[in-house]
From TrEMBL:
All copies of domain Rieske, residue ranges: 5-91
Coiled coil: none
Signal peptide: none
Protein name: Rieske (2Fe-2S) protein
MF term (GO), any: metal ion binding
Keyword check for Iron: yes
Organism, scientific name: Pandoraea bronchicola
Record-linked CDD domains: Rieske
Amino acid sequence: MNPPIFLVHLDAMADPGARGFDPHGAGHDTMFVVRSGTQVRAWRNACPHYGDTPMAWRKDAYLNHDGSRIVCHAHAAQFDLVSGACLAGPCLGQSLTQLALHVNAQGEVFLVASDAGVP
């Protein structure tokens, strides 16, 4: 079983904000974390509309202008921050793939062992 992987401290993230990570050294961000208030969620960096298309057009650009939705800049799809469900765009009825996180009392965010092997 893989140990949890430290990603970021909450103090290092904007609120609302998002940040991409490459926990396994793939050479590109394979996942991203979204913070909105006390809610913190992680998603696989792949639009469900078409294969494994990365979501951001530049580093850490995963949210719309006001931070209320996740956006795939390749397809203009918009996703709910909480559920990952597609709300607008070519992938209605589909969702992002959520990854399991653990946030400890010190505000450290970890990718949990069950998802630590996800590319």
